[in-house]
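LOG
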Amino acid sequence: MAQFLVERTTSLSVAECWARLTDWERHGDFIPLTTITRAGEGVGSRFTARTSVGPVGFDDPMEVTVWQPPEQETSGRCRIEKRGRVVTGWAELTVAPSAEGTRVSWLEDAAVRHTGRLLDLPSRVISARVFGRLVDRLLA
């Protein structure tokens, strides 16, 4: 599995960071060739990231397994399990108050099925870059 960590600090409030990071459909605005559809909110909700070029692509279905929104500027945490045939793993998003405003953390461990460790390094490098840009743009 290819684990990576994206961390940012912003002057936005904890609640605003949470709202932006968990607006799943908006992620598709910043991840190339990807659209996101969602069903529900909170624990048990599901969403699918469809990555494609024309008719060729794959679905990355995910389920929210932990949903702890921040309350009154406390920390918040969300865990997502990847349930797809192509991509497996999980992601944890946290927001926490800091002296500057809010500290955001996106920790993810994902792998492409049936590739073993072959794609771990390139996947880690590319994912860290893509999700770093995603977090930056969502918080901008």
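LOG (cont.) second protein
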Amino acid sequence: MAPQGARMTVRWFVPSGEVGALNIALQTLMTATRAQPGCMSCSLSSQLGERARFTYVEEWRSEEDLKSQLRSERFAKLAHLMEGATERPTVEFVLPGGTRGIDYAEEVHGHQGEVS
């Protein structure tokens, strides 16, 4: 990723019974993400076991491209998936100015507590 780029990584564990539905939802979001202006890449990986681990990564050309997406309906769908998770996912934003957590999305969205 270029120094001016931005990356969002979401990691979470889900019970084996939730794997199929989450995989389909994330695959759909990943396809939509790749079509967005400024998207450099979007990937999904999973490790299956008693609990499955999903890692969803979006890489953006610039922090402004990422900010635009954090305000989108597409991101609202991702946030809804995270809010409905049995276990709270971890979210990491790697930005030109440093690394942030979910508070960055809340700040960009402009409503503290709306994205959890």
